[in-house]
Amino acid sequence: MAEEIDDPREVPWHPRQAFQVLGHDEETGRFRDAVASGKPHHAWLMTGPKGIGKATLAYKLADHVLAMTNPTQTGRWIAARAHPDLFVLERGLNDSKPRRLRQEIVVDDARRMSEFFARTSGSGGWRVAIVDAADELNTEAANALLKLIEEPPDKALILLVSHRPGRLLRTLRSRCRRLPLGPLGEADVIALLRGLPLSQPPAENTLAVAARLSHGAPGRALELLDRG
Fold first, then answer.
1. How far is it, in rounded angstroms, from Cα 100 to Cα 194?
2. d(CA 158, CA 148)
3. What predicted TM-score, i.e. pTM, was given to this entire model?
């Protein structure tokens, strides 16, 4: 049965709204160096355990690329889901009430990403797509994405988030540059939790326990705090 929830993209701690990124410095540097070269690989597969900040980093990398042509507005546009040169491929909500999150990313959504890349950038710069998460693509959607990656448009970057890359199509994995990410240290997890706009900030000892039990995954720590 599909999950009955409100739109998950509207929570105040969604990765697109995270203004602080801690850890993953080496991986961030690799990506930025590739972009600075002027000829980065067009598809990047960001892998690692769920909750360690892969999607958050993907949004920050997208911000880095898109801010090259508009440094003042990019962050706000991304946070508001309003940047014309950023497309996010993710599970959508169906039309039933209460609205329910689909169990998978469907081919119609993947085709909309192809339509997005068929348009030129309004600023003349890069166009970026984030796939969050690639593990949730159904077979038709995965094949549509593979076709796009095999025939990439000019000035296009695709950032794929994957918790279980072994489940992806082998050909899809082989077309991407790997960017493996690891768990964060407890101090970084605590610092990230402190920066979230929680309605009732937890006590320091509670933060420390959540960070320790999360095994380096801020997303998992947040789930533990929500459960009390």
1. 30
2. 10
3. 0.92
CA nearest neighbour of 148 among 109, 105, 114, 106 = 114
Q: Are strands 177-180 and 3-4 parallel, antiparallel or unpaired?
A: unpaired
Condensed to tens digits (0 to 9), the pLDDT of residues 25-76 reads: 999 999 999 999 999 999 999 999 999 999 999 999 999 999 999 898 999 9
| 4 has a pLDDT exceeding 50 | no
Q: Phi/psi class of residue 81: alpha, beta or left (left: φ > 0; alpha: ψ in -120 to 50)? A: left
Instruction: Determine phi and psi for 26, rounding to 5 degrees.
Output: -65, -45
Structure token pair of residue 144: 């549509």
* 167 and 135 Cβ atoms separated by less than 8 Å: yes
Residue type, 99: R
CA distances from 213 to 56, 159, 199, 207 (A): 21, 29, 22, 10
If DSSP codes are grouped into helix, strand and coil, which group holds residue 97?
Answer: coil
Whats the size of the chain, residue-wise? 228
Write the single-letter amino acid at 208: A
Residue 176 and residue 47: Cα distance in Å, rounded? 11
Q: Are 158 and 117 in contact (CB under 8 A)?
A: no
Order of strands across the sheet with 177-180? 86-89, 127-132, 156-162, 43-47, 177-180
- DSSP structure class, residue 137: B
25, HSE (Cβ side, Cα atoms, 13 Å): 4
Distance CA 87, CA 104 (A): 17
